[in-house]
Amino acid sequence: MVSEQPLVQARNLTKTYPPRGSTAEFRAVDGIDFALERGESFGLLGPNGAGKSTTMRMIAATSPISGGTLRVLGMDPMTQGPQIRARLGVVTQDDHLDNELTVRENLHIYGRYFGLPRAVIRERATRLLDFAQLQEKAGDQVETLSGGMRRRLTIARSLINEPDILLLDEPTTGLDPQARHILWDRLFQLKQEGVTLILTTHYMDEAEQLCDRLVVVDHGRIVAQGSPRDLIDRYATREVLELRFRLDERDTAAEKLRTSALATGSDGRVEPLPDRVLVYTADGEAALAAVHAMSLTPLTALVRRATLEDVFLNLTGRSLIE
Predict the structure, then answer these.
(1) Would strands 196-200 and 41-45 be described as parallel, antiparallel, or unpaired?
(2) 124: pLDDT confidence band, cut at 50, 70 and 90?
(3) From the record, what ranges are coiled-coil (predicted)?
(4) Which of 15, 127, 151, 320 has its CA 20 to 30 A from that of 253?
(5) Domains in the chain: ranges and CATH
């Protein structure tokens, strides 16, 4: 039996921008490989400027590739862009909604872009308003909606053509926790219905919640890939001990911990930060006991499980990239 072809496949995918003045050629995406299967929820993680959004634009057939190969739904974005875009749903960082139109009118107009019959648009719009929990707002102008409602409408609008793949570029940026969780519920429902998701996000808890598999990108290259659990097991310890010290004791305590067995042992490391010290360890309580045995008395001590954020910072560092 022949296995199904990947929905998206990239091999040595590259995106470069020509030099400007004395500036050398910029490689936004630098030879990455990945394959996406039908029904997956796939995440692209990385710092600002790492190449995530550029990769999404190439998948969406709105930015040409510079090198390597890319196939989306078995087609070449360089020559079959319109056919690919007709089968994609795209949620950009900005909503780009028509503020002066009503919620329902936004769905109807977007459906017309795909050439759908009016009867089909009416049926799908009613169903999508229910999905997005916007039935009671159907006749309201978009400019009256909250940020969370606007994002739900944007996602609903992206589904009007019943796409094979839904691209989401930082879908919950700027939303409050309640709105984020409602949006997560909607995306999880789509995943359960078999919609294939590709998303970028700066929220590591979001990636853990939504992604079956992800890649971490830094400086245009993939530095790690796997499921969230696999990456945590591979690049982080089981637990993290967070310690906070008095200001006049912080530097001395951090140096003592940095040179201790907690930092030099095979199953742990110590990372001093400006406001706290992180001890990565297999056993947080045992590590805390060792801290007290060194005659160190933190103001607060928290033992928590390692998360995808610990993996992300370990792989990409804590410096901002703009």
Answers:
(1) parallel
(2) very high
(3) none
(4) 320
(5) 8-227 (3.40.50.300), 237-306 (3.30.70)
The backbone region for 265, taken as left when phi is positive above 0, alpha when psi lies in -120 to 50, beta otherwise, is: beta
User: Is 275:242 a contact under the CB 8 Å cutoff?
Assistant: no
| Mean pLDDT value across residues 71-79 | 96
In three-state secondary structure terms, 315 is helix
Per-residue model confidence as pLDDT tens digits over 101-114: 999 999 999 999 99
Place of tokens 């997005």: 132
Output b/e per residue, 257-289; b: 16+ Cβ within 10 A: beebebbeeeebbbbbeeebbbbbbebbeebbe
Distance of CA 232 to the CA centre of its chain: 16
Q: Provide the token pair at 2.
A: 């022949």
Q: How would you label 301-312 residue by residue, b for 16+ Cβ within 10 Å and e otherwise?
A: bebeebbbbbbb
Query: Are the CB atoms for 303 and 239 separated by under 8 Å?
Result: yes
CA atoms within 13 A on the CB side of 232: 19
Identify the residue whose tokens are 């400086």: 219
